[in-house]
Amino acid sequence: MTDETGLPPEIALLWGLREAPRRGRKPSLTVQDVTRAAIEVADAEGLGAVSMARVAKQLGNSTMALYRYVESKESLLKLMADAALDDPPVLPADGDWRTGLTTWTTCVLESLRKHPWYSRIPLHGPPAGPRNLAWFDSGLSALAGTPLEEGEKVGVVMGLITLVHGQLRFSVELAEGFEDNPEAFGRTYSHALRTVVDPRRMPALSRVVAAGVFDHDELYDESDVDEEFTFGLNLYLDGVAAYLARRA
Description:
The chain is mainly alpha-helical. It has helices spanning about 10-15, 30-45, 50-60, 65, 75-85, 95-115, 130-140, 150-180, 185-195, 205-210, 220-245. The mean pLDDT is about 90.
């Protein structure tokens, strides 16, 4: 279904292209006001606290008043997922695709980590909002000097987006798990693995356990999580480099 712009209503809403109500009192709020208030609630209380009623309370308005601007909580979440992003960074102008993508990926993750609730927003489709598309464009621009076809560039950037979202959720949930039960990240885990892992059924994992990889008093460390992400990112970019070498 499309509106007067020929766009799906939610995309028109994201881009501020939806017509303002023609009847009734002059609007006292804007879509941006509602979105900003929802982000404030999520930052303070978590995504689960976000509801039309709670956001209305944050704004000092009635719940019904919000529906003049945003028709549903699902639409509100999409607005939040776009507005919460910072602007993308200015990438190096020398055409170094690897430096550009490393900067891009690091900045995406840094932006999203300002809002830990972001990892719990459902994904209903490809990026469509102005800031999400600005980031998409920025990532693609890092590959402008490569021989990749346009569709291949999209594949590379989408792979990085998957990596970032996985890391965001992984790091947020690990941090919450550690806060709730730090003992689960200590020697108890190593002992449990040594007890239940059968070398005949799980030979690869058994070798890791026997090597003492998990023999630490505390397995969770935020800096280790970041190092593991950097390791994974470099492996991914090594794969892109190898693919480019074959193309050349």
